[in-house]
Amino acid sequence: MLFFLVFESPEITSYEVELIGPALKGTINFLRSCSKVPSIKRVVVTLSLATGEFTGKPLTPELWYTLSKTLAEEAAWKFSKENGIDMVTIHPGWVLGPLLQPTLNFSVEEIIKLINGVQTYDNPSYAWVDVRDVANAHIQAFELEEARGRYCLVGTVSHRSDRLNTLHKLYPDIQILEKWKDEPTGVPTHQVSQEKAKSLGIHFIPLELSIKDTIESLEEKNYITF
Question: Is 169 known to be catalytic?
C-alpha cells in the first residue's frame, strides 16, 4: 500500500495554524493509521526539497512553508522509528509536466507567468523535476526492497532566464517581454546530487521536454492560447 501525502494551502491567514498544524497532524495521522494495519510493509511519504532549506533565519511566508515541511519530516521519521514502520521519503523540487488535476499548481503557474510576461523579472535558480519522474520514483521506492531513507528529485537546476530561452526556442513566434532586475548570469547558484535518485532507476526527463509537455497540457486545458 502506498500513501501520498500532499499539503497545499494557497491562501494563508495564519502560517502557524494553517501550515504547521496540518502538516504535523496530517503526517502523524497517516502514519498512525498505517501502524495499525499489519499488512502494510512500507510507507512512501511525499515531502519536498524544501525540507533541506530551513536554516533558522527569521520566518518569511516562504520559510513558514519550508518549516512546516521540515517539522513534518522530523515527526514522520521519529514516529516511524518508534513504531517500526519501514518509511521512505520523496523530496521533489518544483514540479513540471502534464497536468492531471483540473486546477493549476504553484510550479506550473511559473510557466504561465513567463508566457504572459511581467513588468520586471528577477532571476533566481530553481530545482525542477518532471511529474512523471516523481510518479516513477514513488513506485520504485515502494517496490524496490533495497530502497531506503530520503530521495531528493531534481532533474535540472536553472535560472528563470534559462526557462525563457527555452520558451523562445520552442515557440519563437511568442513575444515575451524581458526586463530584468539584475543581469542574467546563466550560472545556477547550486546543484542537487542525482546519484541516489538514479539508484531507483530514474532517468530524468530533460527540462526542455518538461516545459514543452507542460505548455501542451496547458493549451489542452485552455489555460493558455497561442
Answer: no
